[in-house]
Amino acid sequence: MPDFRLRVFQAVARHLSFTRAAQELYITQPAITKHVRELERTYGQRLFERRGNRVSLTEAGTLLLAHADEVELLHQTLTEKLHQLHGEAAGRLRLGASTTLSQYVLPAVLPGFRHRYPQVELTLLNGNSEQIAEAILSGQLDLGFVEGRSKSRDLHYEPLLADELVAVRRATPAGPPPEPLPLAEALAHPLVLRERGSGTLEVLEFALREQKIKLANLHVAFYFDNTEAIKTYLEAAPEALGFVSRRALTRELAAGLLEEVPIRGLRLPRQFEALWVQGQPLTRPAERFLRYVQLQYNLKE
């Protein structure tokens, strides 16, 4: 098994941040620093240059990273081949998912998958659709899950399940509008939206462009990097209107905290998709996970 200190070093090298490496590995930042210093003492070389808050690899660090990546790949290959002798899936599976998927779709299937495939070591990176695509292309992830319309020619996309964005606001005593609001009236409210690079914002922008409406001309009160923040903001802002995945609203609608606002002439369907590098076969754990997710949601749909 590769030295855990190498995994720590790789995480720091990927993020060029001791803090983000600690978040990825679920250990403290002092522990990250301790492991890196031990490696530097072992090899008698500085692996990182630290200037204030900026971190960069030294020449020795760059060389060690290349070899650490080779060691990791060899270990993963060996683990998979040994378990394939018994028809098992094993090894490390690095998943990435855009915010909606990582919060409201994948958590429901992770316990069942871990029970069925206990030899697979799972990690899940949360980011927006653009960040997940970049992480797949850079080799940081084995399998990603995103929503949106933009697609890279260097990535293979496989449809997973359908979703829909809906307009919501703080629940009112009168309840949801009995008739859909005119689009102009709905967009006159202060809007609360996801950040640039998110699949949610991309779907909304595309639909508005079809109506000859530019987002820049609207009153956007706030951009958030996660759906939970949007919902919490809306609960405290009676005049605001937000656009959120229907899959993220189950509890708030049932509790009477938020209410859906139908808008005339505006439908926002979208597709959740799995993605990986074009022309590159999935690892056995990644292939098993994708099929498991598809099976679970096909049964539920």
UniProtKB/TrEMBL annotation:
<dbReference type="InterPro" id="IPR005119">
    <property type="entry name" value="LysR_subst-bd"/>
</dbReference>
<comment type="similarity">
    <text>Belongs to the LysR transcriptional regulatory family.</text>
</comment>
<dbReference type="Pfam" id="PF03466">
    <property type="entry name" value="LysR_substrate"/>
</dbReference>
<dbReference type="InterPro" id="IPR036390">
    <property type="entry name" value="WH_DNA-bd_sf"/>
</dbReference>
<keyword id="KW-0804">Transcription</keyword>
<protein>
    <submittedName>
        <fullName>LysR substrate-binding domain-containing protein</fullName>
    </submittedName>
</protein>
<dbReference type="Pfam" id="PF00126">
    <property type="entry name" value="HTH_1"/>
</dbReference>
<keyword id="KW-0805">Transcription regulation</keyword>
<dbReference type="InterPro" id="IPR000847">
    <property type="entry name" value="LysR_HTH_N"/>
</dbReference>
<keyword id="KW-0238">DNA-binding</keyword>
<dbReference type="InterPro" id="IPR036388">
    <property type="entry name" value="WH-like_DNA-bd_sf"/>
</dbReference>
<feature type="domain" description="HTH lysR-type">
    <location>
        <begin position="1"/>
        <end position="58"/>
    </location>
</feature>
